[in-house]
Write a sequence for this structure.
């Protein structure tokens, strides 16, 4: 019964995500405010760093640190939730 509930919850979450993502995808493709063809850059710009990735402003060290902290917290909660008998062995 518990496995069935997990499967239904996962399926419902996936379907809801796909339904909500479709309008967001359609609206972002329709809002071509700069007049560029999809996949091309408009304007000349400086092509000095053409081989690198653009800077998005996302601090990956911060994201990695938060992920590591959440993982460590999960491990600590699991260890604290173990029964006392299994801690000694």
């Amino acid at each position: 019964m518990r496995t069935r509930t997990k499967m239904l919850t996962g399926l419902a979450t996936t379907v809801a995500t796909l339904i909500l993502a479709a309008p967001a995808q359609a609206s972002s493709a329709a809002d071509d405010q700069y007049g560029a063809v999809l996949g091309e850059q408009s304007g000349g710009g400086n092509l000095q760093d053409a081989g690198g990735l653009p800077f998005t402003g996302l601090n990956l060290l911060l994201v990695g640190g938060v992920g590591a902290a959440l993982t460590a917290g999960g491990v600590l909660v699991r260890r604290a939730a173990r029964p006392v008998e299994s801690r000694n062995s």
Notes: DSSP finds three helices and no strands in the chain. The two ends are 32 Å apart (CA to CA).
